[in-house]
Design brief:
- The protein is α+β, with helices and mostly antiparallel strands.
- 26% of the residues lie in helices and 7% in strands.
- The chain is built from 9 helices and 6 strands.
- The strands form 3 sheets. A two-stranded antiparallel ribbon has the order 1-2.
- Strand 3 and strand 4 form a beta hairpin.
- The two termini are 15 Å apart.
- The N terminus is likely disordered.
Length: 269
Amino acid sequence: MNSFFKTVSVWTIALALVGASLCPANSQGKIAKRLPPHEYGTTLMNNYSEQSQMAPVVFRHWVHRSKHTCRLCHVDIGFAMEAGQTLVREKDNRDGQYCGVCHNGKEAFACEGKSLLGKAEKNCDRCHTTTPIGRDDDIRDDFDRMAEKLPEGRFGNRVDWAMASRQNMVKPKDFIAGVSFPRTKMKHQQGDVSLDAKLAGLPDIIFSHEEHATWNSCDLCHPEVFALKAGATKYTMQDIFAGRYCGACHGNVAFPLKDCGRCHSKPVF
């Protein structure tokens, strides 16, 4: 078998593995429905909502990542990376924690505030909603208006956020006074790292620290997810498919694992 057909065969195997990973089964063993682009990365926050006779909070990552970096929420503000692990109560938000860091009427709309007419109003239904995910036409239209101005991606919510950032088409906020702290740039932050692919013929991975550091901080990945010493962390694609290591973001919010060529991008000679 020549090198061309070997490469095609390896890519076919890789795509089959990825395809299997993108159809997760729920607790009843049924195949989960794939969400439309405007709902990719959507998370339900329901630790306490229904207990308080409120609809769950529908959190859409694309709305927030178009305005703020990932590290602002997951490092500075303190949201856990795993859904459901941050126990946010309404009182916390009103006290200026978690969602309340921004939703205070200055950075973003407040839980309660005054309308343009000066009347007191509640904004509960802007987050707590009974509308089924994927059925909100206004949200879809808002997404389409935003996405048509940004570089197109192939999968996920079909926006190439990295390209949008490189071209200054989005300028996510990365600092909030009183919450954020200055960061020292690490010496490895600007370089690309080549990671060997495990399957012969599959292109090696080009990992850009700079690209990731634009949205995330070093302490989001190191040392809990990846050891600081190069090569010290051992993992497989099966681990990533299971939502560990790179899979903590890719497949949940960042572009999904079926977009193999975004990582396996080193030319094969």
